[in-house]
Amino acid sequence: MKFFIDTANIDEIREAASMGLLDGVTTNPSLVAKEGKNFRELLNEILEIVDGPISAEVVSTDFKGIMKEAKELAAIHKNIVIKIPLIQEGIKAVKALSSEGIKTNVTLCFSASQAILAAKAGATYISPFVGRLDDISHSGMQLIDQIVTIYRNYGFETQVLVASIRHPLHLVEAAEIGADVATIPFGVIKKLFNHPLTKSGLEKFLSDWKTLEE
Ligand code: E4P
Description:
eight-stranded parallel barrel, 11 helices, binds erythose-4-phosphate, alpha/beta
C-alpha cells in the first residue's frame, strides 16, 4: 500500500518524508489556499522534498480550460499528476490526457458509477472521499470495497487512492480491502504510531534499565 500525504504544508511534508514512509503527495485548492503561497512555487518546493507522484488540481471546469491547465502543470515535472474533478468535462480531459501519457487523479468521487467512468477514461488514480461520505451517513469504506471489486473484475489499471481519511481505522480498513494508495493527513499519520501499551512498555523498559545504571 502506498502512503501519500494529504497536505500542501511544507513542514508537514518534510517531517513525513523524514519518516521514510512517504510515496507521494496530494493537494487540493483548499489545502493550497490555506498556505497562502504561489501555487507553482509551492509545487516546486514539494518536488524538491518528495520524489514521487504529486497531485496538483486544476480549477477550470470546461474541457479547454482543464486541458490548458493540465498541460502547464504537467510541464513542470514528470512527477506532477493532474487532479481533475469527476464531472463530464473532466472525464473527457482525463481520456485525452491519458492518451498522451499524462497521469491523472480523478477527484471528488462519491459513487461506484463515477469510479467506472474514471477507469474507462484511463485515469491513473481514482480518489473516493471516505470521510465526506461517512459525514452524510453513507459508508465510505463500502464504496472502497465496491470500487476495488469492480476494478479487479475487469482488470482496470486505475489505482484506488483512498481520500478524505479522518482516522487510523480508515487506513486499516482500506488496507484490508486492498486499496492501492491512502492519502493521509499529517495528524492521522502521527496517530498511526500510537499505542498505550507501546508507551507504557517503553517507560517500564527504560526505568528498569536505569536501576542497572544506578
Ligand atoms: C483528496 O485528495 C482530498 O485532498 C482530500 O482527501 C479531501 O479530504 P477532506 O474531506 O478532509 O477535505
